[in-house]
Amino acid sequence: MVPLNADSSRLRYRALIGTGGIGTGTFFALNDNRTLGREESRGGRFLDRRDYCKLHIIAHYVRKLMGDPFAVLPIGKVGEDDHGARLLAEMDEAGLDLRYVRVVPEHTLYCVCFVYPDGTGGNLTVDDSASSKVDPPFVRRAEKDLAACAGEGIALAVPEVPVKARAELLKLATEHRLLRAASFTSEEIHQARTSGLLACVDLLAINIDEAAVLADIPAEQDPAAIVQQTVEILRQLQPDIQTSITAGAHGSWVWDGAELTHAPVHDVESVSTAGAGDAHFSGILAGLASGLTLRQAHELGVLTAALSVTSPHTINKEIDPQSLGALANRLEIHLCPEVRQLIGA
Question: For the whole model, what pTM was predicted?
Answer without folding.
Answer: 0.92
